[in-house]
Structures are given as C-alpha cells and as structure tokens.
C-alpha cells in the first residue's frame, strides 16, 4: 500500500547502472545503505515513538526504488538481464522497484521504442505525485501522441487532488544539462516538455541518459523563469561523462560521480539529497541537499466563494449605513448639532 500524504517516507532514484564494476559497486553500496537506514528507522520509531528526538522523522525508511532507464545495458541479451537482476535483487526483492525504459533496454528481444504497450504511468507516493514517461517511443511525445495527451490530462487533473501533491516527472532522456554525453540534452523533447512542466508547476524532472549528477533549473523559453528542477541522476554505474568547462547560472550543482538520489517526503514538505558512492566499503556521502517545492498553481489558499460573497455584502451594507448616517447628520441644524 503506498504511504499516504501524512506519512513520512523516502524514495531512491538513479539511472544508467549496467553490470560493470561500478554498477556492481553502486548496487552493493545502495543495498547496504537501504538495509542500514531502514532498519535504524524501524528501530528508532518502535523504541521511542514519543521521544523528543527527531532522528526517526528526519530519516524515514525508503519505501520505493526508481530506476530511470538503462538498467543492465542488456541490449536484448538475456544473460546480461539475469546478471543485472541478481545484482539488484537484494533491495529490488525487498522494496517496490519501478523502472523506466532506456535506449539500452530491450524486452524479450523487442526494443522499448517499438513496443506497443504504453510504458508510462502515474501514482501517488506520500506527498509526491510521480509521473513516469516513456521517452523511448518512436512517436515520442509528439503533441498528437497518446502519451502526450495522457500527460496533459494527468497534469490538469491535479487541480482536483487535495492536498495538492508535489509533482515529479520521470523520463530517461535528459532535457537540459552541461554534461557532454549527449550534446546538452534532447532539444525536441525539451522544447515540447519544458513549457508544459512550467505551466503546471511541476517540481522536478528526474532523468538519466547522460552519466553523472547535476541539479539544474529548467528555463522557460519565453519568460526566462526557473520554476522546475532538472535532476540528472545517470550515476548508477555507467562510465561517467565530462561536463563542459563553463558552468552557467542554471546549473546549480554538478559532479562527475556515481551515486543515487534520495527524496524525503514528509507531511509538510519534500527534500532531497544526493549520495556519492566511491567504494562498496565506504558509506555513501551526501554531496548535495535541497528542498523540492510543490509550487503548484493550485497550492495557494483558496477562499471559499460563499465567504467572498458574505464579505462583499458586509462591506456594501456598512458603506450604505455610513452613507445614510452622513445624510442624517447633514440634515441636523448646526446649532443642535454642536449642542449634541
């Protein structure tokens, strides 16, 4: 059962793992990390539910793993798929594990991009509304595609979700990055998605494809406003890409590092932190931490219509009363007015 919006929980996200040495390293480090943090969270909450310590609140157990494409780099090889499954089995068998298709992922010899099944979905997890896209479709996310219309309908429906969730969109393809892996991001997809993500105040777009970690700000092509985080987490183990030497203002933090992103969902807010992994024997280290704002167009406090009408009636009635009082006062003779 997914955790409710009032429950504290954590999600882990990464992409582009593979079965190479560094992919094995990240999987082992993540398995140890999840085992340690989840067991300590459970022990803390069960031993002292009324304790003043906030450790169990600040470190909720992970309840979901998100792999944003390029899983085992099997490219249709069943042996590689088996190796990858064994590699992630320690935590994928203990927690819900949701994967997105990447360009190196084939299913039963049939490429994701030619598979007729709609590999896109949405679900609520804690305060988060997760929207997972399939950026590998041949038709892509063209405006006339079924997936694009589904995405628009899903984002529009958030108006009716109360309380409004913090919305994160997942996709394998990178939209905007200073990584040199794929030339700065997928431009057609960026042009199509960024206006939509900003219009509906999506909090973050999480992706892989390029290899490394970067927290950036999506820029609206017309207004130039930054309202959506672009989180590149293609740090699961594939050979790391370089970044361009210059770091523009929209690239807030970047590091050529393996690791994973942890998203912490609380009843009142959502935060995130990126853990760098350098060795299976060394605990992952936090190198970046930040808040993820809901920023939704419907997150403002809505005043009930009836209250607005009553307020207007009260103001009008009081104004009429003052006007009539002034008229009566002006009709009183000056002498009597001063005596009173």
Task: Walk me through the structure.
- The chain is built from seven helices and 15 strands.
- The protein has helices spanning 21-47, 55-58, 78-92, 146-157, 187-199, 305-331, 334-339, and strands spanning 9-14, 62-67, 97-99, 106-107, 110-111, 121-125, 128-132, 166-170, 204-207, 213-219, 226-233, 251-255, 258-265, 270-277, 285-292.
- Helix 1 packs parallel to helix 3.
- The strands form three sheets. A seven-stranded mixed beta sheet has the order 6-7-8-9-11-10-12, with helices on one face.
- It is 31% helix and 24% strand.
- The protein has 340 residues and is an alpha/beta fold.
Total number of helices: 7
Order of adjacent strands in the largest pleated sheet: 6-7-8-9-11-10-12
C-alpha termini separation: 75 Å
Order of helix and strand elements from N to C terminus: EHHEHEEEEEHEHEEEEEEEHH
């Amino acid at each position: 059962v997914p955790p409710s919006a009032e429950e504290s929980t954590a999600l882990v996200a990464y992409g582009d793992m593979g079965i190479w040495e560094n992919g094995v390293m990240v999987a082992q480090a993540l398995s140890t990390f999840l085992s340690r943090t989840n067991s300590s969270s459970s022990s803390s909450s069960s031993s002292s539910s009324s304790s003043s310590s906030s450790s169990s609140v600040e470190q909720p157990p992970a309840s979901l793993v998100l792999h944003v494409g390029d899983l085992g780099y099997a490219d249709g090889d069943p042996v590689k798929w088996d190796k990858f499954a064994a590699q992630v089995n320690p935590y994928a068998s203990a927690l819900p594990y949701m994967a997105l298709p990447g360009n190196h992922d084939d299913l039963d010899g049939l490429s994701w991009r030619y598979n007729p099944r709609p590999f896109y979905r949405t679900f609520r997890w804690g305060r988060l509304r997760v929207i997972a896209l399939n950026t590998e479709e041949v038709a892509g996310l063209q405006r006339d595609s079924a997936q694009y219309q589904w995405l628009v309908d899903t984002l529009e429906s958030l108006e009716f979700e109360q309380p409004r969730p913090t919305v994160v969109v997942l996709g394998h393809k990178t939209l905007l990055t200073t990584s040199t892996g794929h030339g700065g991001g997928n431009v057609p997809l960026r042009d199509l998605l960024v206006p939509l993500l900003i219009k509906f105040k999506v909090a973050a777009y999480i992706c892989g494809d390029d290899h490394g970690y970067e927290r950036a700000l999506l820029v609206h092509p017309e207004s130039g406003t930054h309202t959506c985080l672009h989180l590149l987490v293609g740090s699961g183990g594939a050979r790391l890409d370089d970044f361009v030497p210059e770091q523009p203002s929209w690239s807030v933090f970047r590091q050529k590092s393996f690791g994973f992103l942890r998203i912490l969902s609380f009843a009142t807010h959502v935060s995130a932190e990126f853990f760098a992994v350098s060795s299976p024997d060394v605990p992952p280290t936090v190198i970046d931490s930040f808040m993820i704002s809901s920023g939704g167009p419907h997150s403002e406090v809505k005043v009930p219509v009836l209250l607005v009408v009553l307020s207007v009636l009260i103001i009008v009635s009081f104004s009429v009363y003052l006007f009539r009082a002034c008229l009566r006062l002006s009709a009183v003779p000056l002498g009597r007015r001063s005596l009173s």
